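Hi all, posting the design record for the shared folder.

TITLE: backbone redesign
STEP: 1 of 1
STRUCTURE INPUT:
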């Protein structure tokens, strides 16, 4: 019998018949195991959801009440004939890899993950396994993320060089915005940070779960002069809309792994690209596979072909799953 024959990849997600449950399904299902709260992994409408307490809180904030079954990191549960354990993925608050054990085999569904230290979430935990299901968002050798502190320092340096302006940072609402704020605090930036209203709810959720973001002030309604010399965070969609026109001569920045691609920065009229990703880069993807040493690698969500090819060159059996509905919400 083929390795992992009890796992069924489908376009809308991964079905585990022995548990009668789906992992990160893109459509409502009776039983869903969810790795983290981004909308390309966590959808509303499931009858029952197993996830970390933080992910369930995020899903409730986005979709309303859930019939949630909280699973703490390291806690083992049994669904049908499958043992299920959640361990940290290092992606965003509450993100997890899901370990599935059945028939003497171990499958790790990593969801989205990164290997860099992040003060807003638990760090990735490598787990040896027979099959490692990995993302490949930045699965090309061109993507090698720079040091986090150097990128965040660009924002502070821009403020110091332009005290009569503000720095407007585009950052996705879940994970990226809170990480930018926390990384600024790690560099002793103690000044108030102004936030767009669309970011406030999830920032409050992070604070409720023990992530200290320092003093945040609402940008909407604030006096233009008050925001001079300060950092303002907003969703990427607000960088060039009418909302941003009321800011004091903003220096437009964008925090994203995609800022490595100059054309992406130009398309968004970004003056100050900040290369900051919540996904593993090429070196981290490949070194993680080497470290875990699975018998097989199943690749999804991104540049699948390149990572499958790399595995083949290193005598690692690999396949692309080609799941649908997985877009990079928090690039």
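Okay, here is what came back for every position:
SEQUENCE:
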């Amino acid at each position: 019998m083929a390795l992992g024959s009890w796992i069924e990849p489908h376009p809308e997600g991964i079905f585990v018949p022995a548990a009668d449950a789906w992992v990160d399904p893109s459509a409502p299902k009776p039983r869903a195991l969810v790795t983290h709260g981004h909308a390309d992994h966590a959808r509303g409408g499931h009858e029952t959801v197993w996830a970390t307490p933080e992910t369930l809180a995020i899903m409730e904030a986005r979709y309303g009440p859930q019939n949630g079954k909280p699973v703490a990191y390291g806690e083992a549960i049994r669904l049908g004939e499958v043992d299920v354990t959640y361990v940290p993925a290092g992606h965003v608050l509450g993100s997890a890899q899901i370990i599935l054990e059945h028939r003497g085999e171990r499958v790790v569904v990593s969801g989205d993950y990164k290997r860099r230290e992040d003060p807003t979430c638990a760090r990735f935990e490598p787990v040896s396994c027979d099959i490692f299901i990995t993302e490949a968002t930045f699965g090309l050798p061109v993507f090698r993320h720079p040091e986090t502190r150097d990128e965040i320092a660009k924002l502070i340096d821009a403020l110091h060089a332009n005290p009569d302006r503000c720095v407007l940072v585009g950052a996705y609402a879940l994970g990226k915005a809170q990480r930018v704020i926390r990384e600024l605090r790690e560099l002793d930036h103690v000044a108030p940070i102004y936030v767009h209203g669309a970011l406030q709810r999830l920032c409050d959720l992070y604070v409720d779960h023990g992530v200290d973001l320092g003093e945040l002030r609402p940008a909407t309604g604030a006096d233009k002069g008050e925001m001079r010399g300060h950092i303002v965070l907003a969703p990427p969609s607000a960088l060039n809309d009418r909302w941003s026109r009321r800011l004091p001569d903003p220096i437009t920045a964008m925090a994203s792994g995609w800022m490595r691609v100059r054309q992406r920065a130009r398309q968004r009229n970004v003056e100050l690209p900040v290369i900051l990703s919540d996904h593993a880069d090429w070196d981290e993807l490949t070194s993680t596979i080497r470290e875990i040493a699975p018998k097989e690698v199943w690749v999804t969500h991104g540049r699948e072909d390149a990572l499958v090819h790399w595995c083949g060159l290193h005598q690692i059996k690999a396949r692309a799953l080609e799941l649908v509905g997985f877009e990079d919400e928090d690039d």
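COMMENT: The CA atoms of residues 18 and 24 lie 16 Å apart.
Let me know if anyone wants the other runs.
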